[in-house]
Amino acid sequence: MAGWVALLWVLEAVDAVSGHALDTFGVSPRQVGELRDVVPAAFVHFGFDHLAANSVPLLVLGFLAALSGMRRFLAVVTVIVLAGGLGVWLTAPAHSTTGGASGVVFGLFGYLLVRGFVNRHAGDIVVGVLVAAVYGSLLWGVLPTAAGISWQGHLFGLLGGVTAAFVFRRPRDDRGNDRGGARAPGTWRN
User: Fold this and answer.
1) Structural domains in the chain plus CATH codes
2) Position 40 pLDDT exceeds 70
3) Fewer CB atoms near the end CB (10 Å): N or C, the chain?
């Protein structure tokens, strides 16, 4: 996660030096050509303040999510980025451009919040409760309360994270126990 956050800072430095040339990788809604920017938009920020606001929660929540395995983490983040970016593309106001990792932050928050309940795993439930206690105020960010803030990216990122918790839940045996060794075809295990 430190490498990811460092990459975001390097990209923002390049953006600043280049006269904000990377800002074009943000998502502009309902333009077919902008679909190619759904993924890069999660890596582009509109200023160092914007990036600083995302850095610590991304670092913490990403670290906690990655503890369950890198393969699962990358799959979860992929779902979050796609859900957040496509949601923005479909619903953001006309003539706007959206970018930043806050959709990923909200997605990881949602994923960690519900993962333990989906998996019925006590340790993950404790993590979810702690994440809710520390970052629960994030939920206000899914409401359209501040001009210039993409509540759409936050909302669809959150929904992507919750969806990922269900899609990548740990397989269970007939007694409801987490499967340790054997793995059914098509299931994720790290």
Assistant:
1) 2-167 (1.20.1540.10)
2) yes
3) C
- SS3 (DSSP) at 189: coil
CA distance 181 to 188: 12
**Among the listed ranges 1-15, 39-53, 138-152, which one has the minimum average pLDDT value?**
138-152
Task: Note the Cα 68 to chain centre separation in Å.
Answer: 16
Band (170; pLDDT cuts 50, 70, 90): confident
Hey, which residues does 98 pair with through a beta bridge?
27
3-state class (DSSP) for residue 63: helix
pLDDT for residue 185 is more than 90 = no
Rounded CA separation 187/167 (Å)? 10
Cβ atoms of 161 and 93 within 8 Å: the answer is: no
Residue appearing with tokens 């105020």: 137
Distance CA 21, CA 38 (A): 17
Tokens of 171: 């397989």
- The structure tokens listed for 43 are 């890596």
Rg of the chain in Å (alpha carbons): 17
Nearest one of 142, 134, 131, 99 to 8, comparing CA atoms: 99
